[in-house]
Amino acid sequence: MFPLYDTIPSKKKPVITYSIIFINVLIFIYELTLNNFQLQEFFFNYGIVPLRYTWKFNYKYSMIWKEIFPVIYSNPFVPFLSHMFIHGGWSHILGNMWFLWIFGDNVEDKIGHFNFLFFYIFGGLFALFFHWMFNFFSPYPLVGASGAISAVMGAYFVQFWYSRIVTLIIWFIPFLVEIPAVIYLFIWFVLQILNGTISNITGSGVAYWAHAGGFIFGMIIGNRVKRRYYL
Fold first, then answer.
1. Which residues form the Peptidase S54 rhomboid domain (predicted)?
2. CATH classification of the domain holding 141
């Protein structure tokens, strides 16, 4: 079930959405120039490694941190922003940028260009906090724009619930169907909760709780903006 486009065109050119996509692609091109060791080092320095900030609270994990520490040299505050612009592979960046392309223009249209930029960044930070609550001592770097993009999707959910998402479904043969945005995004959100719960048991490389947290942030802020718009 892959979304292709929505049925609501934006009224203004979404320059911030385009700029965010451009920056993400540019950084990914840089990643392609790195060898495996350099790429791993890049992820650990500019992605968020929860253990980097929590190892002092647990002796067992402090031992793990001492093994990781030699490759860490970035300022500890930089990853809070930089992790949102780094991706782990082709499917990661293509999927994220596609979802941002579909949902970002309308939300940016609604709240304005610069407001959208701040909303996007703080949505990513809230998503990070949500991920952190379930991965307090994780030694693995969190990278990707999906938390911030999930916030955009949450805002879209409350602001453009009446929209429809043209979706590609492959069931024996591929076909297109228009799914109400409120149903599509609700199902997506529930799946993040379910997958996040399962991943706590089995382990997973996908930050489902960051997706859920970002979506919740987007719903809250999106609803406040919607209410102010109608007053």
1. 79-223
2. 1.20.1540.10
